[in-house]
Design brief:
Order of helices and strands: HHHH
Shape: elongated
Largest sheet: none
Number of strands: 0
Length: 54
Amino acid sequence: MRHTTITLALDAGAPLRDVQDFAGHRDPRTTRRYDRSRSSLDRHAAYTLTAYLA
């Protein structure tokens, strides 16, 4: 749930600093990991299959 909330906040355009404060991260690099992990979903097999079926 935490990961989803942080990822959705970043997707919605919330500033990294605000999301960092919300998540309680001391280091912005921790928050950036959530931002970077979003692109790996695009390579996930389930997403490829869904795009193919759509």
